Amino acid sequence: MSLSPVFIRALATALPEFQNKQSEIEAFMLKTVAKSEREKNFLHKIYEGSAIDTRYSVIPDYRLPTDQWTFFPKNADLEPVPTTAQRNALFCVEANNLATLAVRRLLDQLPGFDAKGITHLITVSCTGFSAPGFDFHLVKEFGLAPSIHRFHIGFMGCFAAFPALKLAQSLVKSTPGAQVLIVDVETCTLHFQKDFQPDVVVANALFADGAAALLVSGDEGPLQLHDFRSHIIPGSEDDMAWIIGEHGFDMKLSSYVPRLIESNIQAVLDRLFTDSGWNRNELKLWAVHPGGRAILDKTAKVLGLDQGQLDVSYSVLRRFGNMSSVTIFFVLREILDRKQKGKLFACAFGPGLTVESGFLEAR
Question: What's the pTM?
Answer without folding.
Answer: 0.95
